[in-house]
Design brief:
Blueprint: H1 10-17, H2 33-44, E1 49-53, E2 58-61, H3 66-69, H4 81-84, H5 89-102, E3 106-117, E4 120-134, E5 140-149, H6 151-172, E6 177-183, E7 188-191, H7 193-199, H8 203-208, H9 212-216, H10 224-237, E8 241-248, E9 254-261, E10 264-265, E11 271-280, H11 282-302, E12 308-312, E13 318-321, H12 323-329, H13 350-363, E14 367-374, E15 380-391, E16 397-406, H14 408-418, H15 423-481, H16 488-511, E17 520-522, H17 524-539, E18 543-548, E19 556-558, H18 560-576, E20 582-593, H19 595-600, E21 606-615, H20 622-626, H21 645-655, E22 659-665, E23 669-677, E24 703-707, H22 711-723, E25 727-731, H23 734-742, E26 749-753, H24 761-772, E27 777-781, E28 789-790, E29 793-794, E30 800-802, H25 807-819
Parallel strand pairs: 18-20, 24-25, 24-26, 26-27, 27-30
Antiparallel strand pairs: 1-2, 1-5, 3-4, 4-5, 6-7, 6-11, 8-9, 9-11, 10-11, 12-13, 12-16, 14-15, 15-16, 17-19, 20-21, 21-23, 22-23, 28-29
Helix pairs in contact: 15-16, 16-21, 17-18, 18-21, 23-24
Length: about 800
């Protein structure tokens, strides 16, 4: 039997394929005329339509209704309504029974139904109707159903209302913010009470609209010309308007405001509306003036004395020098900020000076040392360095102030008093000094050559990546301004450039052994076996991947992500060396490093696990092999490789206490062997599981407290976590975070930056744990030498997410830390 001639209907096909004789419906040929007629109507309509038939209300439906059944389709076809809708039966059963018993139709709008979706109950909303299907004797034989889901619409409406309410609450919380909307052709400015108060226009007049000139009357006469000029330029070109100027109040006082807005233009360029907002910035202007006055007095005092004066933040970051410092050293302004000042020490004094300075930073003891400082003449002169910490009322160090005093004349006098050696000894000393100077110059030249190669490669790669990012963002800006929406390729290009830049940074950190490692106990055989499918996909069909795994292989303590990345790096290099295909073998073995071999390669003797990657490619010449680990050295074409792959592998393995060895011969392939120390102990290994395609999401009610002093990074983190389904609270400092906890906030996770002013992330976590007891903490940082990383290794029990991070990396890390 064919209910609908159109065989393209999926449900028509499914209904015809079912043997109905084994169901309460009976043979199709015996179906009543009413059922056939209503089913034909159902299958022929494009609206989501279903019908419930018989005493147990068995379900039939069309293609448009199938998505409503969700995961239950096509199982639901022919099933009783009680089974299909077990999750919402308590809601719809009374409605269905009322239609059956009374013969009266039923409809409802935005009905909330707690439906089972994706393994959990979700609150959904629906518009739907139930209409009785009558037989010839007037008995209700079934129910005709049509409906649509309204969940998304209701959510959008609620979000819009909440956004509008938040904006009004935010504006209403202060008298310093006002909004306006200028009808340009009719010269009528409608403004809120706050804006009217700022500009001295009666509230009632501003509420119904007043000429723009009424508001200009309050602008200071000296500022009015450039404000009018800026408005004229904005109306002509449609640019963003942003101006700071003074308003003269009724009592003659001045208020500073900043006004910002953007006009709406007709297609011919005629200005139609000009909405905007004004902020009272008088307090900021007064504070800036007071700060400038204070800074001028401070500079006048510090520049009036002979000593070189400097200042640092609590962590030792140098951010101020007086003029005497620059007069003495002759260096450009600001060139010795942060750690740049260390380059001014005599090479022989650097380690000693840094050791004393770090000790003082850790203990708070006064700084007192003599060292040699490079003079503007190029010579080094002895100076006396002193510094004292400044503490707040709680005893915490808020700043360090120090001085450098030229004591070369005193040192010379000491030398004259102690000079009693014979002339020959003096001549020997002079020759020795000259020899040391020559050696120092040679070392410096070698360093500069290496630095030149490194910075040249970094500049080349970063400039390429930045060119992609800036080009994509410029095109994105222009296309958005034209209202175009086909922007995915520009967004993808910018993301790709940023990801490549982040990857290059990680490779540089690995090469310089500055990346924070997160070692864990792993079984190398299990890791290699788990990578086989990834390697096969990454290397392509022309490359045959083999694994040779040793029995009884020891465990190692290493960063599993970095180790997997190292193996993948070597495999890709092997593939590139086999342009016509070949075989790539990954082998594991236990091995022992003798004292002689260890001494020759600067490693510890003992037991190691060896992971070797061998290709049957072109091999390397002796010259190429000698430079293989050099940064930015590559034999590939320009743009085909960064030259940091092997450098990254070398840096990671050496930082992990191991060693890398390459064996290669032209025409016979290459073998790279990684030696990693054996781990002793019974610590459990972590199961290495494949990543899910979708980011791990939060569970309803899970609260994450985000603490980040950089507003842009904090906003991204907050929005990303909300996108992942978490409830999020945010704070711009450790003190603000502690205040939230003091008010009763109980987060499931503290997600905090490590390096922040006044209070580090580590200090915040300690204080927060004292308040809440056991608290799960995830640190994030873009600076590798900090409070949670020591000797390149992440502190035990500490979780760290390196900046920059993607949404997927954030999702995986947060989920792992919360789940323990």
């Amino acid at each position: 039997m064919t209910f609908v001639p159109n065989t393209r209907s999926e449900m028509n096909q499914r209904i015809q394929e079912i043997d109905w004789t084994k169901t309460p419906f009976g043979a199709e040929a015996d179906w009543p005329q009413e059922l056939r007629m209503v089913l034909s109507l159902c299958l022929n309509t494009a609206l989501p339509t279903a019908l419930y038939w018989g005493d147990d209300l068995r379900l039939l439906y069309n293609d448009a209704w199938a998505p409503i059944a969700g995961e239950k389709h096509p199982w639901a076809l022919g099933r009783p309504a009680r089974e299909v809708w077990a999750d919402i039966w308590h809601v719809i059963e009374p409605q269905l029974l009322a239609v059956l018993q009374t013969g009266t139709g039923f409809s409802v709008a935005d009905q909330m139904l707690p439906m089972q979706r994706g393994g959990r109950i979700q609150q959904t909303h629906w518009d739907y109707s139930f209409a009785p299907i009558f037989g010839q004797n007037g008995k209700v034989l079934g129910i005709f159903n049509q409906g649509n889901e309204t969940t998304a619409r209701l959510s959008a409406e609620r979000a819009l209302r909440a956004s509008e309410e938040r904006l009004e609450y935010a504006l209403g919380a202060s008298d310093t913010v006002g909004t306006w909307d200028w009808d340009v052709p009719n010269d009528r400015v409608i403004a809120d009470a706050r804006f009217a108060k700022l500009y001295g226009v009666p509230r009632e007049k501003a509420g119904v609209g007043a000429p723009i000139a009424d508001f200009f009357n309050a602008i200071h006469p000296d500022d009015l010309p450039h404000v009018e000029k800026a408005i004229a330029a904005t109306l002509k070109g449609g640019r963003v308007f942003s101006q700071e100027y003074r308003l003269v109040q009724a009592d003659g006082a001045h208020k500073w405001v900043i006004a910002e807005g953007r006009p709406m233009l007709a297609p011919d360029g005629t200005p139609l509306r000009f909405p905007g907002i004004s902020f009272d910035i008088t307090d900021r202007k007064n504070a800036e003036a007071a700060l400038r006055d204070s800074e001028e007095r401070f500079r006048a005092i510090t520049n009036s004395i002979d000593q070189m004066i400097w200042s640092t933040t609590p962590d030792g970051y140098h951010d101020y020098y007086n003029q005497r410092w620059y007069d003495f050293t002759g260096v450009p302004l600001g060139s010795t900020d942060a750690e740049g000042w260390a380059g001014m020490f005599h090479p022989e004094d650097q380690n000693r000076a840094w050791s004393v300075w770090r000790h003082c930073l850790q203990t708070g003891e006064p700084y007192h040392i003599e060292y040699r400082l490079r003079h503007r003449s190029g010579k080094y002169r002895w100076v006396l360095g002193r510094a004292q910490p400044v503490r707040n009322e709680d005893g915490a160090i808020t700043r360090w102030f120090g001085t450098c005093t030229d004591i070369q004349d005193i040192i010379d006098a000491r030398e004259v008093l102690t000079r009693s050696r014979e002339e020959l000894e003096k001549e020997v000393q002079e020759r020795t000094v000259k020899l040391l100077e020559a050696e120092a110059q040679l070392r410096q030249a070698q360093k500069m050559e290496a630095v030149g190669q490194l910075t040249g490669g970094v500049a080349h790669d970063f400039n390429n990546m930045l060119a992609v990012i800036l080009g994509a963002m410029n095109l994105l800006e222009r296309r958005l301004a034209r209202g175009e929406t086909d922007l995915a390729r520009y967004i993808d290009a910018a993301k790709d450039g940023a990801n490549r830049a982040a990857a290059l940074t990680q490779r540089l950190l690995a090469f310089s052994r500055r990346q924070p490692l997160q070692p864990e106990i792993i079984e190398p055989n299990r890791m290699v076996a788990g990578m086989r499918e990834l390697l096969t996909r990454a290397l392509g069909e022309q490359v045959q991947v083999e694994t040779v795994l040793a029995a009884g292989l020891w465990r190692i303590n290493a960063d599993v992500s970095q180790l997997e990345n190292a193996v993948l790096n070597l495999a890709v290099n092997g593939r590139d060396a086999m342009p016509n295909g070949g075989r790539l073998t990954v082998e594991t073995a236990n091995t022992f490093v003798s004292e002689d071999y260890a001494r020759e390669h600067t490693m510890s003797p003992g037991q190691y696990v060896m992971i070797a990657v061998t290709d049957t490619g072109t091999g390397m010449t002796g010259d190429t092999l000698a430079k293989a680990f050099d940064p930015f050295f590559t034999t590939k074409e320009v743009g085909k490789g960064s030259g940091l792959g092997l450098s990254q592998v070398f840096g990671f393995v050496r930082q992990s206490g191991g060693h890398v060895k390459i064996y290669s011969e032209p025409g016979h392939g290459t073998t790279v062997k990684l030696y990693l120390p054996r781990h002793y102990g019974e610590t459990e290994t972590r199961e290495i599981s494949p990543q899910n395609a979708d980011p791990a999401r939060g569970v309803r009610g899970e609260l994450v407290l985000v603490v980040e002093d950089d507003e842009r990074v904090r906003n991204f983190s907050v929005e990303a976590l909300r996108e992942l389904g978490y409830t999020v609270a945010e704070a711009a400092s450790g003190a603000a975070a502690l205040a939230l906890l003091g008010e009763g906030l109980k987060p499931a996770l503290l997600f905090t930056d490590v390096v922040m002013p006044e209070m580090t992330g580590r200090e915040l976590a300690t204080l927060a744990s004292e308040k809440l007891g056991e608290l799960k903490v995830l640190y994030t940082t873009g600076y590798t030498r900090n409070a949670v990383v020591h000797n390149g290794i992440l502190d035990a029990g500490t979780h760290l997410l390196q900046k920059p991070f993607s949404l997927e990396q954030l999702a995986e890390k947060v989920r792992r830390v919360i789940d323990g």
